[in-house]
Amino acid sequence: MYVHTVIARLKNGSADLTEDPTPILPPAIFQCEKLWQERGRRRSWSKEQWAYVRSAVEPWLYARIEPEDVHRENGLWHSERAIQARSIQLLSCSFENGPLPIISAYAEFQLTFDRPLRDTGELYDWQEQTDWLDWALCFGFRLQDEGEWDATWEHGGIDFELIDPNDAITGHPEMIVS
Questions:
Q1: Which branch of life, at top level (predicted)?
Q2: Residues 151 and 141 sit within 8 Å (Cβ to Cβ)
């Protein structure tokens, strides 16, 4: 068995808003929306605002991979139904659709395979032989009622990257927020 650290990146993910999430949103999320509206045309958060937004939004994020049988039959070794993210980092947040934000974020997973994978290319080769992990990725918000709002409903892309197991999610070069 070979344990690999894999990063899943969700770009501009938004949840299905056919139901109104506002009754179950924590007050800090509404404060973030208000800060976003006050920013006007500026494209970036101030350092202090971004720290507040991350501290308000990240605790409500979840990410997991729910492998299909084809993944298990072709070398992904996990007995549990879902593989929970070890860590999640919010990279961007927009409230243009209302108080449940559009997010870009990374999630770090440890996945066990029956073979060593040397790099992200081999991870993608494995995915082509089985089924793409993006169909198995659940990434979104778990709110006060424990309901989940999956931000992969509509998104600008999902990527997976195999990283060195000694790198922590916060040490990944692309994860630094300026």
A1: Bacteria
A2: yes
